[in-house]
Inverse folding.
């Protein structure tokens, strides 16, 4: 798996999102991850975690859009297959 170099600001947004998510504050996590994907639209993990936060908030339409964005940038075929199946259930 290639090492992904993130801009320090993007990395800070991502890590803050993880902190909020792990505390159960999915709205604040989503806000941080929206900044991540805005700064680096090719960062698959940003889309993945934003979609997960939207699912936790029961915002299915937004989650679906993020999963679709994730599928466009993810390179791991196994992960893509799993998410394609997940999308069918949304």
């Amino acid at each position: 798996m290639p090492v992904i170099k993130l801009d320090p600001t993007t990395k800070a947004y991502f890590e803050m999102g993880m902190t909020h998510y792990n505390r159960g504050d999915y709205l604040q996590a989503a806000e941080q991850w929206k900044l991540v994907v805005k700064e680096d639209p090719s960062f698959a993990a940003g889309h993945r975690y934003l979609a997960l936060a939207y699912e936790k908030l029961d915002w299915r339409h937004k989650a679906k859009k993020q999963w679709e964005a994730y599928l466009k940038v993810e390179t791991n075929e196994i992960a893509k297959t799993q998410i394609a199946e997940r999308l069918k259930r949304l």
